[in-house]
Design brief:
The complex is a heterodimer of chains A (471) and B (229). Chain A is α/β, with parallel strands linked by helices and 471 residues long. Chain A is built from 17 helices and 19 strands. Classes of the chains: A alpha/beta (471), B alpha+beta (229). The interface between A and B is large, with 32 and 47 residues.
């Protein structure tokens, strides 16, 4: 099936207009990125000086290119963009990414230039992403248009829509180097002269490579369409959104309470809820929740059990679960509870959340956490488990294979690991657990925050099944 | 519905910013929102007749599209128990009115311990949005309200009811019956329908929406028009 926007995500041939051999320039970094990601389609480079760039012949102008190239990435000064699009259109190119900034985000001159771009889009019918963006990354097709030095971008099933090129640049570099998950598609939509957030959402909605969608937007160009697509999509795929800034909307009708209370944020809040989009407020959650969803299934509900080495953590996390995270910490079934009691010294009365340290002192860390986690994973009232692993040289460094084994044994229940005590062991544990499919989180609140967001996604998904609320 | 079209058309034609309370209330009623029983009256004879028909106690309000903030200006009298009360109130409101020979609205006195607010506002980004929350003075004081873009399906409306912080007010509290949630849901959906159907309406306030027994009744309504539409 050929879908709209396929030329951006699965181009069989790409022309880079403004390619250069000058190192550390966008027109060169894009070529390094394309090479590093192993793009296997045809690549055409255009530079008015001609000659060779990175061992390839450069074409002197767009006009010299063969007909029917799928996608052009234009990396030229802003003022040259309208004409470049016209020339691309004349060669039968139907999709264009515009990298340059210097349009409506800057000044009046830029605004006029952007209006000209809009006119050219209408006149030629070319689909345009940008301007003011690093464009598209599509790992199933080994392609990126990003001009920020990235290296190879790991493949996965999370897709991002971002307002700016941000995600396809330094955030992506962070994900690629610090985390152990990959992405399917990433788009920075930039100034949206043509393709907007709704077009991309529509593509992701039916994209078999995309299992969850993360969105960072400062404004919506087609809000009602976006919500309509989202409402349909969130029955099947989670959508998680960070809404940056506030719009200048604000409906003012003198004398009406309704209008006076209709702040943008309240309306956006209601709109996102209606569409089943889980709203987040932290930038880091765009990464942490994606990591969790890459490794583990969506939790079936909001009921959590956790194992901590200290009473303080048990108490404070329980408070936060109730007060801020909408997570339940339910009582365990007697069989699970008595198993916890069995592995613990008699002076402590075991329950959920699980005070695991007395057992660890008696039985060793590995035994205590393994048996404790299994007892709560088996419980039908528990949807997800968070072990807070305390590791030091003195108390012992466990072989964490048992966590991986438990994750495989209970594949329907997310396990999110976090840590206490010595930093170096957290790093080692992350490097061991994450490639084996168990996500880790450096700070103890983070797995709960992520669980809270994903449990919300689950509620939205279940809503389609017609569950009703009660007072 | 034809009556509503002509009501709105007439108001727009006169460049008015609002519908009168009576006009607003008829608009709501046309969309199935339960409204307080009321009648428009031009003079004392009509006021007296309307009150007798509705049955005491009654409420008397000045009713003119040019006058808002009626309570603050002393243009509303509530709990009028008999004709003597009514006459005093009629005279007082007549004196206080900034508009000569304005109509009066005679309304049944709706009693209930709970006041809610429902509304609609046309947002520049999301179009018509429906509001629900705590009503009366608490609308301003607490701002415990929630919004959804129209149109609403039943589950949207039901979620709005659950979502306000003060949602316990809808349950069986202090000896009062639990509110009939389905009829509230219908009111919210109706607000959405009005927003979708009438571009020329910029905002609607129904405050208070009083819960009488277990059912909502719109007691005061204000429809704000968008002169540029």
């Amino acid at each position: 099936m050929i879908r709209k926007l396929d030329s951006f995500f699965e181009p069989r041939s790409v022309a880079v207009i403004g390619a250069t051999s000058g190192r550390h320039k966008p027109g060169n970094d894009i070529l390094l990125n394309i090479a590093a990601n192993g793009y296997s389609g045809e690549l055409y480079l255009v530079n008015p000086k001609g000659g060779e760039i990175m061992g390839r012949t450069a074409w002197r102008s767009i006009g010299e290119l063969p007909d029917g190239i799928d996608l052009a990435v234009i990396i030229l000064p802003a003022a040259l963009n309208p004409q470049a699009i016209r020339e691309c259109a004349a060669k039968g190119i139907k999709a264009v990414i515009l990298a340059a900034g210097g349009f409506s985000e800057v000044d009046e001159e830029g605004r006029l230039l952007q209006a000209e771009l809009e006119a050219v889009v209408k006149e030629t019918g070319v689909r345009v992403i940008g301007p003011n963006t690093s464009g598209v990354t599509s790992t199933p097709f080994n392609f990126t248009s990003s001009f920020f030095p990235l290296g190879r971008i790991p493949r996965g099933h999370i897709s991002y829509i971002a307002q700016t090129g941000n995600f396809a640049t330094h955030t992506m570099r962070y994900i690629a180097t610090a985390e152990h998950y990959g992405v399917a598609r990433v788009v920075g939509i930039g100034n949206k002269v043509d393709v907007d957030e709704s077009d991309v959402l529509e593509y992701y909605a039916t994209d078999p490579e995309t299992e969850a969608i993360f969105v960072y937007l400062e404004s919506l160009k087609s809000p009602r369409r976006f919500l309509e697509i989202a409402r349909e999509t969130t029955r099947r795929k989670p959508i998680i959104m960070l809404k940056g800034g506030s719009t200048d909307g604000g409906s003012h009708a003198a004398g009406a309470h309704t209008a006076a209370l209709a702040s943008d944020d309240r309306i956006i809040d209601g709109a996102l809820k209606q569409a089943g989009i889980a709203r987040i407020y932290k930038y880091s959650h765009l990464i942490l929740a994606a990591k969790a969803l890459s490794a583990m299934p969506l939790p079936r509900g909001n009921r959590v059990s956790y194992l901590a080495p200290s009473g303080a953590m048990l108490v404070t996390m329980t408070d936060l679960c109730q007060k801020y995270w909408n997570l339940e910490v339910p009582a365990l079934e007697e069989s699970g509870r008595s198993r916890l009691q069995e592995i613990s010294p008699p002076y402590i009365r075991m329950r959920n959340p699980v005070d695991i340290w007395p057992s660890a002192i008696v039985n060793g860390i590995e035994f205590a956490y393994r048996e404790g986690m299994e007892a709560v994973l088996k419980d039908p009232h528990i949807d997800a488990v968070v072990p807070i692993l305390m590791i030091t040289d003195e108390t012992g460094v466990p072989d964490l294979q048992f966590v991986v084994d438990l994750a495989r044994k209970y594949p329907e229940k997310p396990i999110y690991a976090t840590f206490s005590a010595e930093k170096k062991h957290m790093e080692t544990a992350k490097a061991f657990l994450e490639p084996r499919g168990v996500p880790t989180f450096p700070m103890i609140e983070e797995p709960f925050e992520v669980l809270s967001v994903l449990a919300q996604c689950r509620r939205y998904m279940d809503r389609g099944a017609g569950k009703k609320g009660t007072i | 519905m034809k009556e509503m079209e002509s009501l709105l058309k007439e108001a727009m034609g006169q460049n008015r910013r609002t519908l009168s309370e009576y006009g607003s209330s008829r608009l709501l009623a046309a969309y199935g929102i339960p409204t307080a029983n009321g009648a428009l009256a031009r003079d004392w004879a009509e006021v007296k007749k309307a009150a007798a028909k509705i049955g005491y106690p009654v409420v008397l309000k000045l009713c003119s599209p040019e006058v808002s903030h009626k309570t603050e200006s002393g243009l509303v009298a509530v709990g009028l128990r008999d004709e003597a009360d009514l006459k005093t109130a009629f005279k007082r409101i007549g004196k206080a009115s900034p508009v000569k020979n304005a109509d009066c609205l005679v309304q049944e006195m709706v009693k209930g311990g709970r006041e809610l607010v429902i509304g609609m506002v046309r947002d520049p980004q999301f179009g018509p949005c429906v509001m629900f929350g705590l009503g009366g003075i608490f609308t301003e004081v607490l701002g415990d309200v929630t919004f959804r873009p129209a149109p609403l399906v039943e589950s949207d409306a039901m979620e709005m009811l659950m979502e306000i912080r003060g949602n316990k007010i809808l349950g069986a509290v202090r000896g009062m019956e639990a509110v009939d949630l389905d009829s509230l849901v219908q009111c919210l959906m109706a607000m959405g329908k009005i927003g979708m159907a009438h571009e020329e309406i910029q905002a609607i306030d129904v405050n208070p929406l009083i819960i009488r027994g277990n059912s909502p009744v719109a007691v005061d309504a204000l429809v704000i028009l968008n002169p540029s539409s």
